[in-house]
Design a protein that fits this description.
CATH class: Few Secondary Structures
Helix content: 10-25%
Number of helices: 2
Strand content: 15-25%
Number of domains: 1
Low-confidence stretches: none
CATH topology: Rhinovirus 14, subunit 4
Structural class: alpha+beta
Order of helices and strands: EEEHH
Oligomer: single chain
Strand order of the largest sheet: 2-1-3
Length: 69
Amino acid sequence: MKKDIHPRLYDTTVRCACGYEFQTKSVAGEQMHVEICAHCHPFFTGEQRFVDSAGRIDRFRKKYANIKK
């Protein structure tokens, strides 16, 4: 086996924008900052958020309102 070919493994503190932080291991460094985590992501929390940019949902509903089932 070759020596010194593996990256260094750090004990990493991951901090989310919501304020939650946890410890893990990573080769990326000792600290990581993420925008979303399992504590604030809608899939894991069960909250449903609709982001309607420029009325896209309304345009979709108006476009397909006359189609019969």
